Amino acid sequence: GMSKQQAEDVISSGDRVTFKRNFTQLLNNQVSSSCLDDRVGVASILLAIDMLKDVDAKITVMFSSQEEIGIRGAKIGPYSKKVDEAICVDVSFGYTPFSKKEDCGIVGQGPMIGISPILDKSMYSKLTEVANKNNIPYQTEVMGGGSTGTNADVITVCENGIKTALISIAQKYMHSPIEVVDTSDVENTAKLIACYVKERAGEIN
Questions:
Q1: Catalytic residue of the set 67, 68, 102, 159
Q2: What is the pLDDT of residues 67-106, one digit of tens each?
Q3: CA gap 114, 18 in Å, rounded
């Protein structure tokens, strides 16, 4: 809302400018806010941790920074942790008019389980099996090429390589101040992670 001169009077070169934060409850379970990418991923992991507090297994959680500018935090996070498997949680494109349906998930229809040449096929299969067994709705996200655009890209090649899966939450209007998600997708992502870890912990132990 400022003229060029007004802006130059209060903003110096190198200053960071951001949109005013907002949070709006929409119909049903949907919410709109800035920075839901990837606050909803963090929320789902925190919910999953609460569901896993009595599980007899070592669970390491990483919240990394600077994913959007080169996946910098995730490049070093897994080092020296002796990780058997990793599950990354991010958002992916939710369908909106004029989008390609084959490139999008549907908001409110469950977590999107990624399948890609760089992701572990056995983990994908186990996640879908666990989802079906526990009546957790899910969507399959087919991702081509050598990149998922998430932290999974660098975790898979960390140290000797780490088996990695990717679960995404469908989100409308990504990278805008009015991102939209369905909170049921966040809850079902947490449930899927918790059920998966419980099964794997039982198999390992």
A1: 67
A2: 888 778 788 888 888 889 999 999 999 999 999 998 899 9
A3: 31
